[in-house]
């Protein structure tokens, strides 16, 4: 980087020659310049965390996850944000939304990747990470097909 005469090396933030207002994007999320924030990384913090903390009136607890209701990562209006206790709760929310969009009941059903919404009792706990993504009948059919291909080949 070329050095400019008259530019002081310790100029950063608003005093830096390349200051762009203290907002930047990181993986689709808006970061804002807040060097004093306890969760700041390189003097920047996620804007949706700052907005949620201002709406609540206190810092978010460690592990809290913020969900954007409309799915737009840059829409950080308070009414578009939901604070969740952790990642497990966030994953559960997305699973329930997926069932709802498929036309099922998110409180009593899960989504089978083969045939759509099914009662939770139709699923067993022997898939990846302990939960199957297919209901029992679909899983049996897929296993039979896989076994037949293996025996033929």
Oligomer: single chain
Assess the beta-strand content as a share of residues.
15-25%
Task: Report the count of strand segments.
Answer: 7
Helical segment count: 3
Shape: elongated
Residue runs with pLDDT of under 50 for 5 or more positions: none
Helix/sheet category: alpha+beta
SSE topology string = EEEHEEHEEH
Helix content: 25-40%
Question: What would the average pLDDT be, to the nearest integer?
Answer: 87
Q: How far apart are the first and last residues' alpha carbons, in Å?
A: 61 Å
- Largest sheet, strands/sense/barrel: 3 strands, antiparallel
Instruction: Report the C-alpha radius of gyration, rounded.
Output: 24 Å
Strand order of the largest sheet: 1-2-3
Write the SSE topology.
Layout lengths: L22 E4 L2 E5 L10 E3 H10 L8 E4 L12 E4 L2 H15 L7 E4 L3 E4 L16 H17 L1
Antiparallel strand pairs: 1-2, 2-3, 4-5, 6-7
Features of this protein?
153 residues, alpha+beta, two-stranded antiparallel ribbon, 3 helices, 27% helix, 18% strand
What can you tell me about this protein's structure?
The structure is a single chain. The chain has 153 residues and is α+β, with helices and mostly antiparallel strands. It is built from three helices and seven strands, in the order E-E-E-H-E-E-H-E-E-H. Strands 1-2-3 form a three-stranded antiparallel beta sheet. It has a two-stranded antiparallel ribbon with strand order 4-5. A two-stranded antiparallel sheet has the order 6-7. The N and C termini lie far apart (61 Å). 12% of the residues are buried. The mean pLDDT is 87.
